[in-house]
């Protein structure tokens, strides 16, 4: 991921968190609605991003769910709030996975 722009890294991190929580089928029609840099002089160099996304949480869902995620690329944390509900905010940390050596 180091060769990817910060905005792409933020999107990929959010999607990985949702795939981990809901499974691959639980993230059907994943859609980025807004991508806003929170810090940095240039948006692409920002290490913190606000990502608004939507997707169908299950195969049987009749409508998509919307989420607001705050991504911190410095420590790979993602704070998620489901929009339109009163659920508490959930925070996830993704740790670096080393590739197996052959």
What is the β-strand count? Answer: 5
The ordered H/E elements are HEEEEE
Distance between the ends: 21 Å
Structural class: alpha+beta
On the 0 to 100 scale, the average pLDDT is: 81
Low-confidence segments: none
Radius of gyration (Å): 14 Å
Percentage of residues in helical conformation: 10-25%
Shape: globular
Structural write-up:
- This protein is an alpha+beta fold and 102 residues long.
- The protein has one helix and five strands; from the N terminus they run αβββββ.
- Strands 1-2-3-4-5 form a five-stranded antiparallel beta sheet, with helices on one face.
- A hairpin with a 7-residue loop joins β4 and β5.
- The mean pLDDT is 81.
Task: Give a brief description.
The protein is of the alpha+beta class.
Give short descriptive properties of this protein.
globular; alpha+beta; 102 residues
Task: Describe the protein's topology.
Layout: H1 6-22, E1 28-37, E2 48-56, E3 65-72, E4 77-82, E5 90-93
Antiparallel strand pairs: 1-2, 2-3, 3-4, 4-5
């Amino acid at each position: 991921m180091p060769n990817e722009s910060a905005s792409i890294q933020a999107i990929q991190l959010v999607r990985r968190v949702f795939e981990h929580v809901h499974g691959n089928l639980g993230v059907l029609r994943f859609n980025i609605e807004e991508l806003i840099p929170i810090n940095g002089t240039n948006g692409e160099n920002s290490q913190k991003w606000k990502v608004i996304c939507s997707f169908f949480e299950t195969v049987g869902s009749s409508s998509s769910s919307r989420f607001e995620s705050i991504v911190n690329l410095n420590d790979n944390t993602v704070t998620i709030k489901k929009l339109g509900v009163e659920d508490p905010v959930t925070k996830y940390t993704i740790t670096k996975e080393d590739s197996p050596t052959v």
